[in-house]
Amino acid sequence: MRFLHMLRSSVLAVAGLALATGLNAQTPYKVLDTWTIGGEGGWDYLLADSAAHRLYITHNARVEVVDTTTGKAIGAITGLHGTHGVALAPDGKLGYISDGAGNAVVVFDRTTLATVATIPAGTNPDGLVYEPATNTVWAFNGRSHDASVIDTATQKVIATIPLPGKPEFPVVDGQGTVFVNIEDKSQIVRLDAREHKITATWAAGCESPTGLAFDVAGHRLFPVCDGNKMGVVDSLTGKLLATPEIGDGPDAAGFSAAHQLAFASSGDGILAVVDTAAAGYPTIQKLATQRSARTMIYDAATDRVYLVAAEYGPKPAVTPENPRPRPTVVPDSFKVLVVGR
Question: Nearest CA to 135 among 107, 155, 161, 111?
C-alpha cells in the first residue's frame, strides 16, 4: 500500500509538472511597454543584441540604437540614404547596415556609432546577415536580384551571386548554409557560403514570402506570406509541412527554440504565435498590437518581441505619376512596442 501511495504521488507530481509546463508554454503574450522614438519617415528591419542590451532599428536614413533595459535612446548611425537591415560581427566591435538608397553596405563602430567604411554593393541592398562559418556578411540586393558577399577581414565584396528574383530576408544555419526568400517567385533559395553558389530552389508554400525565421536544430524554415499564411518548410528537403494562419500583410518572423513557438508580425496590427511542437502547427494566439507594426525581432534571451509602428496620415490622391500612393508617416509617432509574458 505504501508503494502504491508513493507511485500515485509520483504520477500526480509528474502529471502536475507536465500540466504546468504545458500551461507555461501556452501563457499568452501581451504588450508590456511602448517606447517613443520619434522622427520622420519609414522603417524596415530590427536587430536585437542581447549581450549588449541594445536594439538596432533601421529608420529612414538612420539606424536608431535603443537600450533594451530602459527603452531610452543610446544614439544613432546617421548620414545614410535609406536603411533596411543590420548585421553584427561576433567580435563586438563592428556592425553592418544595408543602405538601400545608397547601393552600399555601411560599416560602423559599435562603441562610437561612427561610420568606418562604405562598401559598394548591388542595387538596393535590403536583407543582410552575418555568416559565421566564413566570416562574411551577405547583402541581398532587391533590384539587381543578386547577393553581395563581403569579407569582414578586408571589408570588400568577394563574390556576387545571381538570384532567380527579388530577395527578401536571409537566415543562416551557422555551418555555411544561407537561405533567403525570393518574394516575386514565391521561392526559398539555399546557398553554399563557401562555394558562393545556389544549391537548391524550393517553393515557399505560400505567396510572396517576405520575413523568414529558422529553427536550426529542427531543420524548419518559416516564411511569412500574403494570404494570411506562414509556410513551414523542411530545410533539408524543401518539403512543405504546414501553412498556419497569421495576420494580413506580414513582413517579419521569429522563432523561439526554448518554447518551440514561431512568430509573425503583420501590417494589420496582429502578432501571430504558432505552436511548432503541436500537431498541425496551430496558431495559438493573435495578439493585437498596432496597425503598421509589420516588422519585429525576437530576443531569445528575454523571450520578448520588439515591434515598430507609427501613425499614418491620409492617403494621397491617385495620379498617373503615382498610381499607388502611400500615406505619409505622422512625424514623431514612430515607436517600439515591447511584447512579452
Answer: 155
Whole-number CA gyration radius for the chain: 21
Q: What is the pLDDT of residue 19?
A: 36
pLDDT tens profile 73-89: 999 999 999 999 999 99
Cell (9 digits) for 115: 561610420
Count of helices and strands (H, E) across the chain? 1, 29
DSSP for 97-118, please give it: EEEGGGTEEEEEETTT--EEEE
Amino acid (1-letter code) at residue 9: S
Mapping DSSP to helix (H, G, I), strand (E, B) and coil, where does residue 21 land? helix
Residue 6 has pLDDT above 50, yes or no: no
| Residue 19 DSSP SS3 | helix
In contact, 232 and 245? CB cutoff 8 Å: no
Mention every residue, 6+ apart, whose C-beta is less than 8 A from residue 217.
257
Closest CA to 82 of 51, 27, 121, 30: 121
Torsion of CA 277, 133, 51, 214, to 10 degrees: -20
What topology does CATH give the domain 30-174? Methylamine Dehydrogenase; Chain H (2.130.10)
Looking at residue 236, the DSSP 8-state letter turns out to be T
Whether the CA torsion 117, 119, 123, 129 is positive or negative: it is negative
- CA distances to 228, 263, 299, 302 from 267, in Å: 11, 14, 20, 24
Q: Is 134 left (phi over 0), alpha (psi -120 to 50) or beta?
A: alpha
In this structure, what C-alpha cell is assigned to residue 45? 528591419
